[in-house]
Amino acid sequence: MSSWTLTRRATAAFAAAALALLGLLAVDAAPAEAVRPPGIPSTATAQSELNALTVAAESHGSTYDRDLFPHWKSVSGTGSCTARQYILKRDGQNVVTSDGCQPTSGNWQSDFDNTWTTSVSNATIDHVVALSEAWASGAWAWTTAERQAFANDINSPQLWIATTSANSSKSDYDPAEWMPSNSSVRCDYVKAWTHVKYLYDLTIDSAEKTAIQSHLTNYCGSSGGTPTGCTGSNTTAGTITEGGTISRAISLSCTGSASTASSVTVSITHPYYGDIQVQLRAPDGTVRTVQASSSATGNFGSRTYSLNLSSEARSGTWTLLVTDTYSGGSTGTFNSWSLSI
User: Fold this and answer.
1) What are phi and psi of 278, to 5 degrees?
2) Alpha-carbon span 1 to 188, nearest angstrom
3) In what helix (H) or strand (E) does residue 211 lie, and over which residues does it extend?
4) How far from 260 is each of 43, 185, 307, 314, CA to CA, in Å?
5) Mean pLDDT per segment of 10 residues, for the chain of length 341 residues?
6) How far apart are CA 275 and CA 178, in angstroms?
7) How far does Cα 300 stand from its chain's mean position?
8) Chain CA centroid to CA 297, Å
9) What is residue 181's three-state secondary structure?
10) Burial level of 265, CB count in 10 A (0-12/13-18/19+)?
11) Long-range contacts of 95-100 (CB under 8 A, 24+ apart)
């Protein structure tokens, strides 16, 4: 792409960005609930866009300079408001601004690491396709005006709120090199990345394309979005003998990774719940202790445990291992267990 000629896709993207800056920023709406950026496509659309991207090695990296992308400048028609200030207000919660546009207080969600912050200085704005990545993928041939439109595009999923640490961790890496620690956002993240590259006719290198395809398959599934409703249960009762272990399995067929807020609910009849050790074996064989044994007394009953299982694929056989660690006490009955990931 020459510095004087834009393709229809890029022209449309630049025009949309300009209209959004003139129109959306002028609206003084009430702070919205924390949301992801607009324009994230469906999985089918992202797949089509990924297929259409030109695969090419990155180039001109040594000539990159951040100043070549004028960013966080005052936006025409809005007084002193910048794209950064607008995003903080639009995607924050209970945001208060100064007489100008600068937020002075509020609550912001960093979706990359699933962290909330009330510090304005800790609520940074990340370019999902980093400026240096864009430069090496074709933006080296753009005009300064085109690069400014890209760096301040509030109408596409290019600008995300991120904590300082998440922003620093991401740096200018592509999806072959870095993914958000919050697995629940990974589907939308790669769809947003793909869409921005498509809008601006940026190239994609082979490793990047392979990684994005894998992520679309693993995290988005066939219907798009973050996979939901992955639950199962096992109600086969059994006697828990003294010093013995009973196991009960649940087989799941769900795309993507398990949630950081997964839960296990266990129902057991036993007069000394401290005698009971509960462990969860993931499909890959990893065993986690859900409840360690102790000297506590009282009926076990029904108990729910919260677990971070984001390092595990959801699909496969999950096995609960229940052990009565005390011989010479009392036997118990395993009633049921359920898993939500």
Assistant:
1) -120, 130
2) 28
3) helix 206-215
4) 22, 11, 7, 12
5) 44 47 37 68 92 97 96 72 89 87 92 92 96 98 96 93 95 96 90 97 96 89 49 87 90 78 87 90 92 85 85 88 84 89 82
6) 43
7) 36
8) 41
9) coil
10) middle
11) 95/31
Q: Where are the beta strands (DSSP E) in the chain?
A: 93-97, 103-110, 115-117, 123-127, 159-163, 231-234, 238-240, 245-252, 262-269, 276-281, 287-291, 301-307, 316-324, 332-340
Of residues 171, 154, 152, 153, the one with CA closest to residue 162: 171
Residues 159, 172: Cα–Cα separation, whole Å: 14
How far is 256 from 252, CA to CA, in rounded Å? 12
With beta carbons less than 8 A apart as the criterion, state whether 187 and 43 touch: yes
Residue with tokens 């677990």: 307
The sheet with strand 93-97 has its strands ordered as: 93-97, 103-110, 115-117
Domains defined for the chain, CATH in brackets: 8-220 (no CATH), 231-340 (2.60.120.260)
Helix boundaries (H) for 34-115? 43-52, 83-90
Q: What is the pTM of this model?
A: 0.61
pLDDT of residue 274: 86
- Ramachandran assignment for 236, one of left (phi > 0), alpha (psi -120 to 50 degrees), beta (any other): beta
